[in-house]
Amino acid sequence: MKKLITLIISIAVLCAVGFAAVGCNNTGSDEINVYSRELGSGTRSAFIELTGVEVKDAEGNKVDKTYSGAAITDKTNVMMSSVYGDERGIGYISLGSLNDSVKAVSVEGVAPSVATVKDGSYKLARPFNVAYKADNSKDTLADFLRYLASAQAQTVIGEEGYVSVKDGAADYVAPATAPTSKIVVGGSSSVSPLMEVLIEDYCRLSGVAIEKIELQTLDSTAGMTNAASGTYDLGMASRALKDSEAAQLESFVLAQDGIAVIVNNANETDNLTIEQIRQIFTGEVRNWANIA
Q1: What's the whole-model pTM score?
Q2: What residues have CB less than 8 Å from 48, skipping those under 6 apart?
Q3: What mean pLDDT is predicted for residues 201-210?
């Protein structure tokens, strides 16, 4: 009898200790772990606007309501590896960076793809912009910009899983003598993987030495700020330019991209509404069991 009583007491103590952390019946084991991007990220800026995580206060100022307990990742690959290693995790990345290590959920019943971004049925989509100072006279920049607007660049964009935006673009024709000035391209970590491939293709076609184009990966705000200051010859942003940025820079849309909402491959969730995404990323819903 004493052994039975001792066993009951032991179980009660263990349950009490467990309940303090996650609950005796494992309540909390289905808690949602939210992953977001850093301030300055173009992907975060576009995502919070499209999902309603960003709201306007009484004075009309934009307020980012991202859940205060969200883990912040500073690059696309960090976001992917975080969700890959967390069965309860959820985050968001560029559609063009998506691979089989994580699962992209449908949004409002529409799966993210080049086709659904292009036809407008997938609602989480944004532009990839490049921007530069109008008075930049470097020959490599001028020629690279011609390439980025070309049919060859649009082919690369499509092959890499992004949405081309220039149907019927003219072919790029290499100059008789390859440009020799060095340029620095930098900014968004979402645009960077695509830009790396475009740089390689441009150098192959133009004869420009690959070391003449330096690619730096930070975030969209850094891309626009450094392009305006002249630190970058060409800035990259995975969002629309702000009015203050557009006033200082020439820009154009390089491609369209979807934002994929990603979960761990073990997660059974296959579809979320935009309202459910908003609730998750503002912290209003904290448990996967509450996602109908």
Answers
A1: 0.79
A2: 54, 64, 65, 66, 281
A3: 98
